[in-house]
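Thread: sanity check for a docking pose with 2-acetamido-2-deoxy-beta-D-glucopyranose

Original post by kr_44:
Hi all, I'm comparing my docking run against an independent structure prediction. Below are the sequence and the ligand SMILES. Could someone generate the full complex and paste the structure tokens? I mainly care about where the ligand ends up relative to the chain.
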Amino acid sequence: MKTCIAVVVLSLISVCQPAPTCDQLLKPVDRSPDLSGSWFAIAMSSDVCLIPALFNSLFWPSIAVDVTAQATPKIYEAKFKFKINGCCSKDPQPFFFENNTILNVDSNNAPTGDPDVLLQSGCPDCLVVKMDDNINILLLLSKRQNATAAELTQFETQADCLGWYKPHVLNTDHDYENCNTTDDAALTDMIHQRLKNTFAAPLNCMAEKFLYYPNVAYMWAQQWWNKFW
Ligand SMILES: *[C@@H]1O[C@H](CO)[C@@H](O)[C@H](O)[C@H]1NC(C)=O
Ligand SMILES: *[C@@H]1O[C@H](CO)[C@@H](O)[C@H](O)[C@H]1NC(C)=O
Ligand SMILES: *[C@@H]1O[C@H](CO)[C@@H](O)[C@H](O)[C@H]1NC(C)=O
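Reply from moderator J.T.:
Ran it for you. Here is the predicted complex with 2-acetamido-2-deoxy-beta-D-glucopyranose included:
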């Protein structure tokens, strides 16, 4: 009975959204792109409700990263640049990159932790990074500071394929030099203050999730179904 219903539901889903598209979009890249250079974070999706809600109502960050190859093969340094409400932070971090996989490194430059994977992107100068940590994040980066509507639509489809939230376009103010403060403590303070002031955001994003993605609602329903059948 369970199998039969699952088959019916699955075939309905596959009529609405052809499976090959998602298979294609969620395939890791075959050839390693050259990661060196400056990348601008364009848009971001997540499987956690709070993230897009926070982006929407509390702060709207700009993120960029400068990547440089290190002397050791496959080891790179990422200089992350964040700006939230005029406050900036810069955070250098070494990482390991091979094929389509990015890993953290320990003090001996040995790869460690959960891998981030590069997925297909809709443009030659873009990267789509899928990060599976406690919070799963899908990030669209480009050498350009903004993307075309078509590029964003493809990214949105990728997030939809994963059943994650509708991506949020990040701030395009990439001036990391003229900042109110570059003090990380001040930045953290400001974020705490803003968090304290808003509680409606998580509820709004719950509603948004179910209205936006039919297949998220479907997966949710399926989980309940499996639990009770
Ligand atoms: C930083 O400056 C911008 C304008 O330059 C202002 O909108 C923002 O509120 C300031 N942020 C803080 C934390 O003072
Ligand atoms: C990269 O690909 C090679 C050849 O397929 C494989 O041996 C290696 O383990 C891969 N590296 C990672 C980090 O997945
Ligand atoms: C990209 O940014 C430039 C300059 O900031 C702007 O002129 C252009 O219209 C933007 N393009 C898109 C597709 O938003």
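Confidence is low (pLDDT under 50) at residues 1-20, 199-204, 209-215. Hope that helps with the comparison, let us know if your pose agrees.
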